[in-house]
Structure prediction request, 439 residues.
Amino acid sequence: MHPAISRKEFAARRRQLMKQMDGGIAIVPTNPHHTRNRDTEFPFRPHSDFQYLTGFAEPEAVAVLIPGRPQGEFVLFCRERDPAKETWTGRRAGLEGARAQYDADDAFPITDLDDIMPGLLENRGKVFYSLGEHGEFDQRVLGWVNGLRARVRAGIHVPSEFVDLGHLLHDMRLFKSAAELKLMRRAADISAEAHCRAMRVCRPGMMEFQVEAELRHEFIRQGARLPAYEPIVGGGANGCILHYVDNDAPLNDGDLLLIDAGCELDCYAADITRTFPVNGRFSPQQKALYEVVLDAQLAAIDKVRPGNHWNEPHEAAVQVLTAGLLRLGILTGELEQLIADEAYRPMYMHRTGHWLGMDVHDVGEYKLGDAWRVFEPGMVTTIEPGLYIAAGTPGVDKQWWDIGIRIEDNVVVTRRGHEITTGGVPKTVADVEALMAGS
Ligand code: GLY
Ligand code: MN
Ligand code: MN
Prediction:
């Protein structure tokens, strides 16, 4: 078994949110089922906000938090037990389970939502809800409030304010607890092992999807049924397409392979990129560019520590990448001017990282007001600089074409600095070549 979040921790999260709610009411639906085709569905994945507050992984559920409500503050709407339906689609906690296993103070059938919600909304000033996140559900929420408006003459107080739930909740989610970090380390370990497996099996002539299969095999084998996002497995020119997911081309001798893949474990993501030579040996050009990216990544990681601000790793990466391109003759000019002109942009067009957590591009503000956010312990970010030199990049000699490189690790801000959770997969030229040769 892998580590998990305790019921106590879910309860503490609900309490912490309710403390900040100023007597309002929070409405938090989980995700709907999404049809894949006809009567086939995509695998169900709970909404991260809902999961964070409840741990309840069934579809068709809504959590309602009502601080100070005498009959109970945590109300869970969910599916009722139904032996016939459970035979077809799986077990359900039911209303009893919602109370006994998930600590709901009150549980109601999801089919009664429209009847019960207006009563819960009465006399609450603020409604905490993520408008725009939940598709058609927005209309139902607005419908309940409008229904109350029609009854003001009966002396009912209608909520007067909608507040974005994310404003409070996403700041909580930005800071990971010890239990969350444990899960994220485990997701990182599994993902690192999957990348090692890919490096070991890769040979010229294989198809990209055959390498993808190795990644997925390792994820599932270790209990992570789903990747945190569609794996990117791009050889040669495909490594220069940032979100390449076709994964259906042959892997050629002499090309690099860029793999961006991470698993999800109990709704927590890992997000790793490694780039390595299909045949196990970097060419001189590949090695030269790879080491520029690696130096940029190390410089960026070094900036992840309490007190530094969010953009410092990016600034460090840009500095090292530009200096490297200048040294290799790919850019010409004066370093500071090239940085000011963003001359690297045709070859480095994304940012150096993003928050990581339940969502791969996790929630949390990057700026507070006009100022970059300052790193604090418990935050988790990726650090992922790259260089992508597509064939025909203006002004760049042919010898550098079709080289796409990204190196991505997951980094926790700690009290003294940082912890890299994805160190289980090699990234120096020597270590990558040794792993590939040793298989
Ligand atoms: N895998 C998506 C990203 O690296 O941001
Ligand atoms: Mn990634
Ligand atoms: Mn990433």
Observations:
- The chain has two domains: 7-172, 175-437.
